Amino acid sequence: MIDLYNVPLPVVFLGGLALIWGASEIGWQLGARRSHQSTNIATLESAIVGLLALIIGFTFAMALTRFEARRDAVVQEANAIGTTALRARLLPEPHRAETLKLLRDYVQVRLDAFQRGLSLAQASATVERSNALQESLWQQAIAVAEKDNEMVPTGLFIQSLNQMIDSQGVRLAALRNRIPSIVLVTLYVLAAASGGFVGYASAIDPRLTRLPVVIMGLLISLVLYLIIDLDRPNSGFITNNHQAMIDTAASIKSFPD
Fold it and tell me: Which of 72, 69, 83 is nearest to 176 (CA)?
């Protein structure tokens, strides 16, 4: 199965446009050879275009839902990191300074991955670095708990640290939750079939021209491009807003050493 997520977005758009226009041209050439109009073609054309519109609507809703889930995951993780940093300031030295340093590195790893256009689900090195920092933070929590196992501040810090670690799992799951490639490939097959039927119907009807076929192919390609772009969180024109993580990083850096 073709994995469209490994194909650059411009190639996806141009390839889809060429596929739809090519299918419409084939349909046009076949229709031009007919000497009379077939009523069945109009019915089939309406049915397949309607089916394409229905599936595009469902797929767009799927992509938008996943996009919003990734956006919410960023906010939740940023809040978890911020809460952990605030509670870390209550820890005794030297654990306070060391924990804040690790948290600064932790949030910077996430910002670096976003700025390079990499998703955490795909950048294994980023995930490994995050896991190493989490282990270091947990060792700090263990060291503090051995000295002071009171609920405040040690217990609260451990609780927020655990939530921060869990939030990474939530965000990774959201990043990996993409529209199956089979759905996208089916969309392009239906789009090509629709282009073929529309081209055929335009050729056998002397009142129609190729312009609507060209416009339809362009619009469908743009919509499919938008769906795939929505499902790529850190690349393309539509990306998740990481302002919450940027604000958290700035807040932690402002803490006194």
Answer: 69
**Gap between the Cα atoms of 104 and 27, Å rounded:** 60
pTM of the model: 0.81
Count of beta carbons in the 10 Å neighbourhood of residue 140: 20
Structure token digits, residue 237: 């024109």
226 close to 59: Cβ distance less than 8 angstroms: no
C-alpha distances in Å from residue 93, one per residue of 44, 77, 82, 145, 156: 75, 26, 19, 13, 17
Owner of token pair 């700025």: 115
Determine the Cα–Cα distance for residues 72 and 214; give it in Å rounded to an integer: 38
Hey, how many other C-beta atoms are within 10 angstroms of the C-beta on 116? 10
Mean pLDDT of 236-249: 85
Angle between helices 211-230 and 181-204 (to 10 degrees): 170
Query: Given phi > 0 = left and psi -120 to 50 = alpha, else beta, which region is 236?
Result: left
Half-sphere exposure of 62 (CA within 13 A, CB side): 17
**5-18 b/e (C-beta count within 10 Å ≥ 16 → b):** beeeeeebbeebbe
Contacts of 178 by beta carbon, 8 Å cutoff, 6+ apart = 5, 66, 231
How far apart CA 197 and CA 43 sit, in angstroms, is 10
115 CB neighbour count, 10 Å cutoff: 10
Q: Is 257 exposed, middle or buried (0-12, 13-18, 19+ CB in 10 A)?
A: exposed
Per-residue pLDDT tens digits for 14-60: 998 999 989 988 888 887 776 555 567 777 778 888 888 899 999 99
Give the whole-angstrom CA distance, residue 191 versus residue 187. Answer: 6
